[in-house]
Amino acid sequence: MFSTELDSELGNKYGYFSQDGREFIITDPRTPRPWFNYIWNGRYAGLISHTGGGFSFLDSPRDNRLTRMRYNCLPWDRPGRYVLVKDVASGEYWSLSWAPTIDRPYDLYECHHGQGYTRIITEINQIRGEITYFVPTDNDAEVWRVRLTNLSDRPRQLEIYSFTELLMGNALNDLINQPNDKHFTDIHFDQTKQALIATRRYWVLNKKVSVAQPNIDWQYRLYFTQTLPVKGFDGSLDTFIGRWRSEANPESVETGVMHNTEITAGDPIVALQSELELAAGNTKDFAVILGVTPKSEPIEPLNDLGLIDQKFTQLTDRWDQYLSQVQIDTPDPKFNLMLNVWNQYQAAVTFDMARNAGYYHGGLLFGTGMRDQFQDILGVVMVEPQRVRSRLLNALQYQFADGSTLHNFFKLTGTGEKTNHSDTPLWVPFGIVEYLKETGDFSILAETVPYHDAGAGTVYEHLIMALDYVASQLSDRGMPKIMNGDWNDTLDHIGTQGKGETIWGAFFWGYILKISLELIEAQGDRENLNRFQTIYQKLGQTVNELCWDGDWYVRAFRDNGAVIGSDDHQQGKIFLNAQSWAVISGLAPKERADRALAACHKYLAKPNGMQIVYPAYRQIDDSIGLISRCVPGKKENGAIFNHASSWFVLAALLNDQVELGWEIYQRMMPLNSAQNIDRYEVEPYVYAEYLTSPEHPTDGQASHSWLTGTAVWMLRVGIGHIIGFRTGLDGIYIDPHVPADWPGFRARRSFRGKVLDLTVHNPKHKNSGVKTMLINGQLIEGNFIDPGDYAESQLAIEVELG
């Protein structure tokens, strides 16, 4: 693995990156917003803030939430996973995660967010506490690993209180029907296992507000235990916290009296009390474990400290291996840090969380989006192709026999919503082709997957059906109808009568046709090849005849033919996505591509990235949609929308405007866009969905961090088009697009069983173009590599640009 050693600590007033880049270390807990991390293993997952806040779930954050986090809560991230320490002699008590006892005078606070774990270190009252939260790779449980050190010169008698608030079941139902829902809870203490055992006798598996009463048993039991002997416990939130109190001052902690409550109704909590004595200078290790198991299986608590430490080592080894598959060493340390660590890590999070389990995406309503699922494979497929293969096959079950799809789905219930967004079916072929380009696993095309309504088809047939469906939804002029919206969900009133057209959708349709045609040809499917080639060629002619506005492409046409996104308009003159995808699709002639991107740079380029539309809508126009009701300068109404910005970077690189693409890529990186951290507010180590643009007084404020398609697109643009590992169905192309002032760089990635070790020289300071390429010392023609042509497991590739 290449070193990501940083010349100096990169960070801000609240924290910094560790020298190896693998941790972001927060040193002031009073951050502008909660800064989160994720602990998960693919089934059991938790969102954890820098103060121990957040929630946990198994498989589904809506249908199988395990612990609570209150929405719109003050403080922001309550409740959480807390371990409170009490000094028996003085009666003082405090939290090892700072919250909820935030009024205490802590001498030291550090939160280390790493890959799959968060470690919080505090010093107060001469007690040093370290608490490490993680989820083992092979256990449906979370561990709070604790180390306490007595920094004083006298022995200390301490009491330990560990607790978290439970939910167990449907999180939406808990939010809207909690007074009734809490009558189905069982919590008791198992003396043999020294654990609180919690379950629920009732499970709601729908999101409707209805008087209909499901009669379903929640199928799991939770256990909560710790490796210290248990002195007392409580299962009742009311009893443990007490009247008119909060997590910050539980009555049981203050009095030292636990009530040993076992409940069959009420608000559930799991709270344990233990005692320990620490001699002067001594250290004590223990762990708190919250686990879940099916009711049909015995409870076997993970309560051996040595085994727990082995589990943590397995976790860190897993991330060492994960991140080793792609590594770069360029002249830009921020670029290296993002691509080597945090961009890869964020992409892994989005793959498992979709837009469905975060602080800004609460996991209550939307489930997993089809377009999100088929985009989010872009990051993980480089490292875990088998997981991606399984995920693709599962998602294809939500396609109908006519080629349309659900817009979003819920994994546990197998249900979802069909919203008739025009672009959603096209992400099916997008994901399949991207999987094939990475893996070369053409066997997946023969796998049979049922349709959501009736019948079944091979994966290849699913792909063709998606193309057929969109072809059946074209307007009389041959362009895709926008229907209830496209990727921009807020353009939802343009085609309510079924005639409105999406121009971004036309270019996206063109791109999907282009990448699918290559696959169709490789399959020898001449009939579909000829048919879709004709559609692609006709689409290019039509869109260029009807949609060019003089300096850029328009965005859409209303049902009545009126245009959206023209220079004649006072608001919504130019939309970013139509210009980017005109280039990405290959449908824009070079002269128009140049002019469209120049117009984007003139009107849309801002210090933090690209504005999605300019000017923002300031007057309500219901003939367009929700976009005009959004606050000007935020979200789809004129924000710096990072997902769309990443597509502009790709378009600039494909159009050989490398310096422009690199300039915007740099602006977007959180280490640059978050320089004014008190305005930016959210985590500075991952991409946010958007930043407020200069069209609003809060210019530069970011929101909706972590769960954004920006993560995978910035990762793949960086690896595939800047570094130049560009995958194809038949192999890989070495095709860097770099700043001219780079003298060269090194990069390594795994691809189809080979390790590609790339060294690029740039003596003439070019942006792109491979002049010569050697593989294992042998000069080859061109820049294409078929890994199957080489017996060696590692290929040393040396390239000179020119």
How do the strands and helices of this protein lay out in sequence?
Layout: E1 11-12, E2 15-17, E3 24-26, E4 36-40, E5 44-49, E6 56-58, E7 65-67, E8 82-87, E9 93-95, E10 108-114, E11 117-124, E12 127-134, E13 141-150, E14 156-169, H1 171-181, E15 185-190, E16 195-200, E17 220-226, E18 232-236, H2 237-241, H3 251-255, E19 268-278, E20 283-294, H4 305-324, E21 326-329, H5 333-353, E22 368-369, H6 370-380, H7 385-395, E23 408-410, E24 415-417, H8 427-439, E25 448-450, E26 456-458, H9 459-472, E27 501-502, H10 503-522, H11 526-546, E28 556-557, E29 563-564, E30 574-575, H12 576-584, H13 590-604, E31 605-606, E32 609-610, E33 613-614, E34 640-641, H14 642-654, H15 658-668, H16 670-673, H17 677-680, E35 688-691, E36 702-705, H18 710-723, E37 725-728, E38 731-734, E39 744-751, E40 754-761, E41 770-775, E42 778-780, E43 784-785, E44 794-801
Parallel strand pairs: 40-44
Antiparallel strand pairs: 1-2, 2-3, 3-10, 4-5, 5-6, 7-14, 8-9, 8-14, 10-11, 11-12, 12-13, 13-20, 14-19, 15-16, 16-17, 17-20, 18-19, 21-39, 22-23, 23-24, 25-26, 27-28, 28-29, 30-33, 31-32, 34-35, 35-36, 37-38, 38-43, 39-40, 41-42, 41-44
Helix pairs in contact: 5-6, 5-18, 6-7, 6-8, 6-18, 7-8, 8-10, 10-11, 10-12, 12-13, 12-14, 14-15, 14-18
